[in-house]
Amino acid sequence: MPNLLVKPAGTLGLVHDITPQSAGWTYVGFGLHRLLAGEKTSGESADRETCLVLVSGKATVTVDGEDFGELGERMTPFEGLPFAVYVPKGSRWEAVATTALDLAVCSAPGAEGYKAQVIAPGRHPQMTRGKTTNTRYVTNIMPEDDNAAHSLLVVEVITPGGHTSSYPPHKHDEDNLPAESFLEETYYHRLNPSQGFAMQRVYTDDRSLDETMAVEDGDVTLVPKGYHPVAAIHGYDLYYLNVMAGPSRVWKFNNAKEHAWLFTGV
């Protein structure tokens, strides 16, 4: 199995390029472009659909020649809500940075019948989830109840320092609907201040997979299966962008039985 912790390759340009082949799985792809003002990047979606997320900064975005204008309003992922653009299969996209830009490229298998569109802030309002030190702030970008995509589920979460997230531990690694869905998942992590770190554990009931990782600013973690809780260290807020996809576009999870007593109210 590939290393579950993926470090960025440099500080500018394409710093992450995670494909189903490199991850050793079937569905999810994730890329991250870090551009200076005036630089541009582009891509072909081929047989995959894509969600471009402006993690920070501003850019002009076009899809198949359709100009969506300048998008973006936050300069860090910790201030405000995201802009995103959905790119259907068989399309070409281009983004030109008008400020320093972190652009996430989230992808999964596509299908016919979907249209390019901007997903503006406020389309899916930010939600507060959990209580006390399990409180975190969730913004759906492409949730399952939004019929804008064939496979992709995209969400971002801010977890305050000293809090847990993706907790109590849950998993979605069995294609057994309606009880549970199979979804591969990536986490793109950012820290504020950037010198901080957080902890993430990925493990299965039988412990055939059991890895605990110290994640730093800009790291990606892979979740091919199992439970995947996160802990933000005191003093450092954690942002992460999740990309999920599987055979069905449904997020149906099960909690670790030994921790089920924690679930009520958290």
Overview of the structural elements:
It comes from Pararhizobium antarcticum. Keywords: Isomerase. Pfam families: KduI (PF04962). One of its GO terms (molecular function) is glucuronate isomerase activity. The chain is about 0% helix and about 50% strand. By secondary structure, the chain is mainly beta. The protein has one domain: Jelly Rolls (Sandwich). It has a seven-stranded antiparallel beta sheet, with no helix packed on it. The model has no long low-confidence stretch (mean pLDDT about 95).
Structural class: mainly beta
Low-confidence stretches: none
Oligomerization state: single chain
> What letter string, H or E per element, gives the SSE order?
EEHEEEEEEEEEEEEEEEEEEEEEEE
Overall pLDDT metric: 96
Measured on Cα atoms, how large is the radius of gyration? 17 Å
CATH fourth-tier homologous superfamily: Jelly Rolls
Named CATH architecture: Sandwich
Instruction: Predict the CATH topology.
Output: Jelly Rolls
Principal-axis shape equals globular
State which percent range the strand residues make up. Answer: over 45%
Rounded to the nearest angstrom, the distance between the terminal CA atoms is 32 Å
Query: Strand count, sense and closure of the main sheet?
Result: 7 strands, antiparallel
The order of strands across the largest sheet is 1-22-19-24-14-13-12
Give the C-level CATH assignment.
Answer: Mainly Beta
* Number of β-strand runs: 25
Domains (count): 1
Pfam families: KduI
InterPro entries: Deoxy-glucuronate_isom_IolB, KduI/IolB_isomerase, RmlC-like_jellyroll, RmlC_Cupin_sf
GO molecular function, one term: glucuronate isomerase activity
Keywords: Isomerase
